[in-house]
Every structure is written in structure tokens, then in C-alpha cells.
Design a protein that fits this description.
- The chain is of the alpha+beta class.
- The chain has 2 domains: 2-78 and 239-257, Immunoglobulin-like (Sandwich), CATH 2.60.40; 84-236, C8orf32 fold, CATH 3.10.620.30.
- 19% of the residues lie in helices and 38% in strands.
- The strands form 4 sheets. The chain has a 4-stranded antiparallel beta sheet with strand order 3-6-1-14, with no helix packed on it. It has a 4-stranded antiparallel beta sheet with strand order 4-5-2-13, with no helix packed on it. Strands 11-10-9-12 form a 4-stranded antiparallel beta sheet, with helices on one face.
- Helix 3 (127-141) crosses helix 5 (166-179).
- The N and C termini lie close together (8 Å).
């Protein structure tokens, strides 16, 4: 599948006029970027490698206090989609270094608080079958409610409220999988069919020797999304960070099939 991505943004910025962005699609064997262009008026750009060697982040140093941004890309998805429940677990002692840190709690994913719950609810199931069971539980227990959480909402609050947006769903997957000794990391993606269309959040779990994309909202399949950046939780992969305030004037994200 090939996707076309278009992003436009206009923000009023703080006096520093310095913005860190995570917008550009990551290049890799599972998603081949055929075209990509980022244009920001009156800005000098400086790119740095993303976490885990996935993609790049971009510093925009602006000469004015408003940011007009346009980004477009054409991406071919070559990601295999094996049956999740059939994927084998990886013993802890056999995990690669890149996966080990995603077993631990993080700012928004206090996975250590869910160990007993996961053992009681999902004990006796292993590997991909356990991840599939966790996704089924989230689907049955949670309700997608726009604007029901904010940038400070943790997975503990989501577990109590049983509602949220894609960010909260991804945090829940990460917390429950980590509590089950399955490495899980937060991924920012562009996804076909996401409603409302925006920067979308999903999870990646380490199964059968590789990272596997899972979307607990059930909005899009692994072969319908492209990864921008990955991290421990939403704190690591915000699409835009500034030192002070940033007031949105307009923002639009479009993802379509080619």
C-alpha cells in the first residue's frame, strides 16, 4: 500500500522562536519514503536522530514569531502482517538491548502498578496471544472519547476512567504489556482511516524477534500506518515541543491512499 501525507500548521510561538518537531516519516525496510518535503517559512532546520534509531527529529530556528509549516510525503508500506496470536514470546535473557528499556515504567506508563492485575487477568497466556488478549480487554473496557484527557493524563487515571483518546489507548497497551514482561513502546504514526485524522498514537510490542505495530483503537491495521517516531511514552515523541507557549492558529493532517 502507498500513502500520501499532507500536513499544514500555523502557530503563534513563544519569544525563543525555537521548535522541536517530530513530523517526518521514518525511512526503513518496512516503509519506503519515495518523496518527502518539509518547508517552514523563515526557519533554519537542524535534524537529529530519533530514539531507537527510528526517524529524525527537526529543530526549527525561526526568525519570526509565527510558524507556517507544510509537510508532504509519499510512502510505500511493505510491512508484513502476521497473525498476532501466533507470534512467539522472547525469553527475557534473549531480548536485545534495544528492547530492554521498554520493559520498565515510564512517566505516563506506570507498568509496575499493573503486575498483579496482569497476572490475574492474563496469566497462563504467552506471547502474541497475551498481547491479543490485552487488546481485546482494552477494546471491551475502554471508550474512545475525544478531549477526555490531556497532556498530563497517566495510564493510572485512564485505567480508572476507562476512556481516552489514542494516546491513552497506546499508554494502556504499553503499561499492560510491560507488566507482562513483553517490551512495548509508544509510536507516533500517520494512519489511514483515523477519525478524527491527526497525529495518531499506537504501540509497538517485541514479539518473535521484531517490533510489531498494534493499534488498540482498532482504527487502522499495521499495513495502513507509517511510523514517525518511537519512545517510552507520549513524553518522548510529541509532534511539537517549545520552550514556552505555542498557540495553534490552524492545523490539518491528511492521510490518503495512492
Amino acid at each position: 500500500m502507498k500513502l500520501k501525507i499532507d500536513v499544514t500548521m500555523n502557530y503563534q510561538l513563544d519569544p525563543s522562536r525555537r521548535v522541536l518537531l517530530a513530523l517526518e516519516v521514518a525511512q526503513g525496510p518496512e516503509q519506503v519514503v519515495h518523496a518527502s518535503h518539509l518547508d517552514i517559512d523563515h526557519a533554519r532546520l537542524h535534524r537529529v536522530d530519533g530514539a531507537g534509531g527510528v526517524g529524525q527529529r527537526t529543530w526549527a530556528l525561526l526568525g519570526i514569531d509565527q510558524m507556517w509549516l507544510g509537510y508532504n510525503a509519499e510512502v510505500e508500506i511493505k510491512r508484513p502482517v502476521p497473525e498476532l496470536a501466533a507470534l512467539a514470546p522472547t525469553p527475557l535473557h534473549a531480548l536485545p538491548g534495544e528492547a530492554l528499556c521498554y520493559l520498565r515504567p515510564s512517566r505516563f506508563c506506570q507498568s509496575d502498578k499493573f503486575t498483579a492485575f496482569v497476572q490475574r487477568r492474563f496469566g497462563g497466556i504467552e506471547g502474541g496471544a497475551k498481547v491479543a488478549a490485552i487488546l481485546d480487554w482494552i477494546d471491551a473496557e475502554m471508550i474512545y472519547v475525544p478531549a477526555s484527557s490531556d497532556a498530563e493524563t497517566t495510564v493510572m487515571e485512564t485505567f480508572v476512567d476507562r476512556q481516552g483518546v489514542c494516546r491513552d489507548y497506546a499508554h494502556m497497551v504499553c503499561a499492560l504489556c510491560r507488566a507482562a514482561d513483553i517490551p512495548a513502546r509508544y509510536a507516533s504514526v500517520y494512519g489511514l482511516g483515523v477519525v478524527p485524522q491527526d497525529f495518531h498514537a499506537v504501540a509497538q510490542v517485541w514479539l518473535d524477534g521484531a517490533w510489531r505495530l498494534v493499534d488498540a483503537t482498532r482504527m487502522c491495521a499495521p499495513d495502513q500506518m507509517v511510523v514517525i517516531a518511537v519512545g517510552r511514552d507520549a513524553c518522548d515523541v510529541a509532534f511539537m515541543e517549545t520552550e514556552g507557549f505555542a498557540s495553534m492558529i490552524t492545523q490539518q493532517v491528511s492521510v490518503s491512499a495512492l
